[in-house]
Amino acid sequence: MKTYEETLHWIHELLAFGMKPGLLRMEQMLEELGHPERSLKSVHIAGTNGKGSTLTYMRCALQESGYQVGTFTSPYIEQFNERISVNGLPISDNDLIKVANEVRPITEKIAETDLGTPTEFEVVTIIAIVYFASYVELDIVLFETGLGGRLDSTNVITPMLTGITNIGFDHTAILGSTLRQIAYEKSGITKQDIPLVTGVEQNEALEVIKKRAEGLNIPISFLNKDYTIMEHQTLIEGEQFSLKTPTRIYEKVIVGMQGEHQVKNASMAIMMLEILKDKCDYQIRPQHIYDGLFKAKWPGRFEKISDHPLIILDGAHNKEGIESLKQTMNSHFPNHRKRLIFSALSDKPVDEMLSVLYDSIDHIMFTSFDFPRASTAKNLYNKCRFDQKDLEENFQIAIKNERKQMDGNDVLLITGSLYFISSVRVYMKK
Fold this sequence. Notes:
The chain is α/β, with parallel strands linked by helices. Helix content is 40%, strand content 20%.
């Protein structure tokens, strides 16, 4: 492959092989490559929501401390390369081409075996591991799971530290329909003797995590027990809070990302950074944490992209995400009329998700976007029981129409699938 376009075409062709949970193909590919994952110092983060934000808080604080930080995240918002980054800068097109050419013969060799063709996510994970291990000098790599944890392709690493942000109902066809089943899958990233920090709050999910930890001698730091949020208040452009950990109190921490859920994500990041400092010999001063958290940004998470009219993008793609969106919306814009543009993938329980918002919004516009698994606007419209609703299949037209309806007291919230938010963000920037 000689061009970026050829490389992406090859990677995206693998989407046709769908999702095939399991680690055998990953383990075989890594063996063929000489186990590059073993040279990485890494942190592994799972959870239903908040993985990307927690990872970003950690990355920014580690950068403030002078470290070179690799990150593996999904999905991307503007450009595919974002998924594999160093200090927030995406892998270059040339490096992506080089690594993909190194990896491709191995994936094609595996495809000829009984294991079958590797999936797109497996190949992207392999590319990230090879890049981090062989192409750049790094002090630490932060890995975000793609789906679940136990059978996720990222679960081939042996991290210094693991994190589980929260547990909620998403991808239930694969991860299970109960909190216990989902917690079992997420907690599968934990390893013998390796510390875990969690923001999980539901008792039934915590029981599963504790049981696994006891069997593997895993020390756990729990939200509201080992690290406790205090004095949270909403600011015009973010949140302020204090945090008590086993070793100190962080007073008046300010984050620019909005919402109570971001306070929990930032608090978990602080606890994880403390463990890296105390148990893994990373030199991280409190001021590095304050500065890093203040500077942290994660696109598509309650992101204001226009002041006049007021437009917010938020990738709330499950019920828990919608609940967080509602809380943030009501705390930051209590006196505004709220209009919603929504699009989602076809497997989402639309009415169950959106019913959380019915007492808080004034109008919903359903739309669609160019993605293989995207639902039509008509299908979303028919599933929704809210009365004040319309539909427009073309999201660009939907945005233009909604803007025409707005006045100075309106806020337009564009939400749903992160793939949708990615498309909208690119369009709005143009």
